[in-house]
Amino acid sequence: MVYQSDLTYRMNLANVSQFSFEMGPIRPPSEGKDQSLLIRATRNCPWNRCLFCSTYKDQKFEYRSVEEIKADIDVARFLHDEIKAASWKFGLAGKVSNELIRAIIQGNPEIYGNLEQLPLQNLGNVANWIAAGAKTVFLQDADTLIMRTPELLQVLKYLKENFPTLERITSYARAKSCLKKTPQELNDLHQAGISRLHIGLESGNDQVLEFVQKGVNQEQHIIAGKKVVESGISLSEYVMPGLGGRKWSEIHALDSAKALSEINPDFIRMRSLVVRKNSPLFLKQQEGQFEPLSEDELVGEIAIFIENLNCSSYVISDQMSNLLFEVEGQLPRDKERILGEISKYQQKPPMEKLKFRLNRRLRSYLGAYGVMSQELNRKVAEALESIQKEAPEAESKTNQAISALKDEFI
Questions:
Q1: Could you tell me if 179 and 157 lie in one domain?
Q2: 257 plus 138 within the same structural domain
Q3: Do 150 and 180 have their domain in common?
Q4: What is the distance between the alpha carbons of residues 172 and 317, in angstroms, rounded to a whole number?
Q5: Do 324 and 399 belong together in one domain?
Q6: Which domain-ending residue is among 327, 347, 367?
Q7: Intra-chain end-to-end CA distance of the chain, in Å
């Protein structure tokens, strides 16, 4: 049917005591792509000391009770059912549209009338989740596996009881938390519904891990990763090119490849380092204790890393901090092709490299934020003009523009 701007849908609020559920600040790019329902199982990060991360700084870690989490699931179920009911009422046969969501917002002013951010985020999250088939849930925040196993099992059971269309439940986890779980506990969690865990390896080199205060060493990473793989849970390990800086670049690449080759996770996800200005690592950089790589040096480090991987993992560069999205494929089958893509970039003439890098960073920025500020637009325009003219200052202006773009990256 054709929707009018004044169309409204009144939700049944009689038996509902709350209209919003908690949502944490982040989730993996793959969960965003699949429009996963976000359920907050714990708040913030139990470690929260990594120098490169500013996500949870000054935020206290908190467990959430099973009853709190269930109450949030109840709100998500309520929104799911109301969106579905509205869809059928307006002849959409269960499908979701922007006009449908607008009708719900306009018909329930006591919830959405003051445009509070969280209720609107919840509605959007559930609507997008339904539109994608209501198949995936991501449990937030940084380390759901730190929960007591019996309590996490209750949450998983409740999710599956309320949402029978679920095919995948995933979460972040720290290697230390995986180490503390017995093989039986991991198996029980897998049987109850945990399909995939996302673990931040970041580096396989002990010096780098100690420097960035990761709180885990190479051996612990390997043991934890193998335990997850053996449980049948799909494992996605994250590596951070550039984390060793100039000092440890090569050994960071080699030891990360060594550790991941031993773990052999289902996925190896690249998340190139961007030094956040509000992170402790930025202070180290300002003090001269950390020297970041240039973008070309970073590409070279990634080539060393890929060359030394000996596993059957799927490598993917699905984070906006990565320059070469082409670094993706199934190992060992696609290794030479991936290395060829890296070599193709490395062989570009200097001005073509600058243009490529700026366009890639601009594409990532606009894909996430849509528009640039006037100041950012000026820097990008000046960089592009200097490249076109092959001006002596082209590299410095391009680096300034890229740095400004990356400051906003998630």
A1: no
A2: no
A3: no
A4: 18
A5: no
A6: 347
A7: 38
Per-block average pLDDT, block size 10, for the chain (410 residues)?
67 87 92 93 96 92 97 96 95 93 93 86 96 96 97 98 96 97 98 97 98 98 98 98 98 98 98 92 95 96 98 94 95 98 97 95 87 91 94 94 82
**Residue that terminates a domain, selected from 301, 323, 347:** 347
Same domain, 360 and 296: no
Among residues 391, 390, 392, 387, which one has the least CA distance to residue 401?
387
Buried residues in 301-320 as b, exposed as e (16+ CB within 10 A): bbbbbbbebebebbbbbbbb
336 plus 364 within the same structural domain: no
Number of domains in the chain: 3
C-alpha dist (Å) from residue 178 to 44, 62, 158: 18, 19, 23
CA distance 297 to 319: 19
> Is the pTM here over 0.85, yes or no?
yes
Bridge partners of 38, per DSSP, are 138
In CATH, what number is assigned to the domain containing residue 250? 3.20.20.70
Q: What is the pLDDT of residue 5?
A: 57
| Parallel/antiparallel/unpaired status of strands 37-40 and 329-330 | unpaired
What's the pLDDT at 17? Answer: 83
Residues 73 and 135 in one domain: yes
Same-domain pairing of 277 and 189: yes
| The predicted structure's pLDDT at residue 33 | 87
| Secondary structure string (H, E, C) spanning 11-44 | CCCCCCCCCCCCCCCCCCHHHHHCCCEEEECEEC
Helix (H) or strand (E) holding 374: helix 374-388
Domain that holds residue 287: 174-347
Give CA–CA dist 410/407, Å, rounded: 9
* Whole-angstrom distance, CA of residue 98 vs CA of residue 288: 50
